[in-house]
Design brief:
Length: 76
C-alpha cells in the first residue's frame, strides 16, 4: 500500500505536534519531516504534502517556499 508522505511546519507547537502524532498513527500516512522555526525547510522536499501550523507572520513565506518547490500545502 502506498503511503502519502507528509511534512509538518510548526511541528513543535501544540497543534503541529498533534498533527505529527495523527500522521504517525495513520496507516496510510508517513511523517517525513517535522520542521519548526529556525529549522531548515529542505527536509520538506521529501513530502507529497506539507501541513503548515505556524503563525500568520510565517505562513506566507512558508507557502511561497513550498510552491517554489512544487509541494502541495494545507494551512491550519
Amino acid at each position: 500500500m502506498s503511503r502519502l508522505k507528509v511534512g509538518v511546519l510548526g511541528a513543535s507547537g501544540r497543534m503541529g505536534a498533534e498533527v505529527c502524532r495523527a500522521v504517525e498513527a495513520a496507516e496510510d500516512l508517513e511523517l517525513v519531516a517535522s520542521v519548526d522555526i529556525g529549522d531548515p525547510r529542505d527536509a520538506l522536499t521529501a513530502a507529497d504534502v506539507v501541513v503548515d501550523f505556524t503563525t500568520p507572520d510565517a505562513v506566507m513565506d512558508n507557502l511561497t517556499w513550498c510552491i517554489e518547490h512544487g509541494l502541495h500545502c494545507v494551512v491550519g
